[in-house]
Amino acid sequence: VKTVAIVGVGLIGGSFALALRKAGFDGQIIGVSSPPTVERAQSLGVIDAAAPLQDAAARADLIYLAQPIQQILETLGLLGTRARKGTVITDAGSTKTLICERAADAIRHAKFVGGHPMAGKESRGVEEAEADLFRGRPYVLTAREPHLEKWIEAIGARLVILDPVEHDKLVALVSHLPQLLSTALAVVIGDHSAASQVAGPAASDLTRLALSPYEIWRDIFATNGLSIDAAFAAFIAKLESLRLQLRSPEMERVFDKAATSARALRKTS
Amino acid sequence: VKTVAIVGVGLIGGSFALALRKAGFDGQIIGVSSPPTVERAQSLGVIDAAAPLQDAAARADLIYLAQPIQQILETLGLLGTRARKGTVITDAGSTKTLICERAADAIRHAKFVGGHPMAGKESRGVEEAEADLFRGRPYVLTAREPHLEKWIEAIGARLVILDPVEHDKLVALVSHLPQLLSTALAVVIGDHSAASQVAGPAASDLTRLALSPYEIWRDIFATNGLSIDAAFAAFIAKLESLRLQLRSPEMERVFDKAATSARALRKTS
Known about the structure:
Chain A is an alpha/beta fold. Chain A contains 11 helices and 9 strands.
C-alpha cells in the first residue's frame, strides 16, 4: 500500500490516518471531505493532500470510507468502475449487510471488504482524531484481506472476522439494543417528573447513552431493522419472563447467569 | 437526641454513625449487630458501645434500623412496646410501603418515620463506612420529623419528603427497573456467545448493574412487587412503541425527549 484515500476525514477517518502514520506507513494519505474539513485536516497534519473523490480513487491502493452509512452507500455507487483493479476498498460503517450488498453490486474492478472499528468517543470531528483510538479495540472485517489485516494489526486493534449478517445480529444485541433501552428508560423516567428527586447512580448509568445524537442512529435503524427487531423480540421476551419470575427463587439463578455474562463482557472489551 | 442506637452496623449504619459524629453529635452511639461486627465497629471507632436490641432500644432517643429489609420487618415486631414514648425510630430500607405498614401495626409508644438514603457503594461492611457517604445525595423521609430532619441536613444529605407508596413507585422506575434491564440484557447477550467479541462501552455501561448480588434484591422484589410490575408494564409498552417507530421520523422526537430527561437526571443526582 503506497497511497491511501480517506473519504470522510472526521474522528474515525482522521484517527485511521494518524494510526497508519504511527504504525510506520510512509506513503501518501489523501483526504476526501468538504473544503473546510480537508483544510483543518491538513493543518493538523492528519492528511498530506486533498483531492476530489474520483482523483483520489484513481490514485489510491487503499480507499477508506469513513462517512455516515447513507453516504458510504452513495460513495460506493460513485466509485463503481473508477477504483482500479488491485485497489482495496473498505469502510467503517456501523452496519454491514446493506453496505456489503451495495458494494457487491457496484464495485467492478477493485476489491471491497467491509469493516467496523468498535471504537469512538463522545465528541466527533477531525480535531478529536487520535492515533491510538483503535488500540485494544475490536476491529471487524467481513472477509480476510492480507494487506488490510496487516495494517489493522499494526495500529493495535483486535481483528475479528465476521460475516456481515452475523455482524449485524451481534451489534444489534451489544450496541443497538443498549441504545434503545437507554432511550426508552430515559423517556419512561421523564414521564414521571418526581422521579429525578430520587434518582441515583443506577439511573445515570443506564441513561448515559440516551444523550447520543439521533443523526448517527437514523442510518443504523434504517439499515439494520431486521436484526434490531429480533433483538427487541428476544429482550422483551426475557423481560416478560423476569416479570413473571420476580418473586420466585429462580431469580437467583437469573442473577448468577447475568453476572457471569457481565463479567465475560468485561474480560474481552 | 442524646443516645442513638444503630441496629445493623454495616456500610449504611456505620456511615450514619460516622456522619453524625462529623456533624457534631456528642451523645452516645450504641451498636446492635452480631458480636464480630460490633467488635470491628468498636475498634474502628464507629460506635461507642455495643448492646442487645432490647437494652439499646430502652436507652435510645433515636433508633436507626440499617438492616436488610426482611430483618427490619422483624426488628419492628421485636421493638413493639419496648421503644419508649419520645423515641424516634427510622430505617434505611430500600422500599417503604411494607415497612411503614408494619411499623404502624407494631410500634406502640415511639414514633416511626421511614427513611431511605439514596447512597451506597459497591463494597459493603462497616470497614467501608464513611462520614461523607450521604453528602449531596437524596435522603427520603416518609413524613416530617424535626429532630431527624435536623440531623439529615447536618450530615449534608438532600432531604426529600415522600409518601411511602409514591416513594416505592419512583424507586421502581429509577432503581429497580434499571437493575432488571441490566440483568435481562446481560442474560440476552450471554445467550449469544459470539457477542462479547464485538462488545464495546455501550454493553459495559448497561451491564454494570448486572454484577449486583441477588441477596440485596430478593427483599426488594419481595416488598415492591406491584410497583415493579407497573414499571415493567410501562417500559415494555415503550419498547413496543419504539419497535414500531424504529424507522419513522418520529424517532427524532423520541431521542430529543430522552436526552432532555437524561440531562435532567444528571442535574439533580
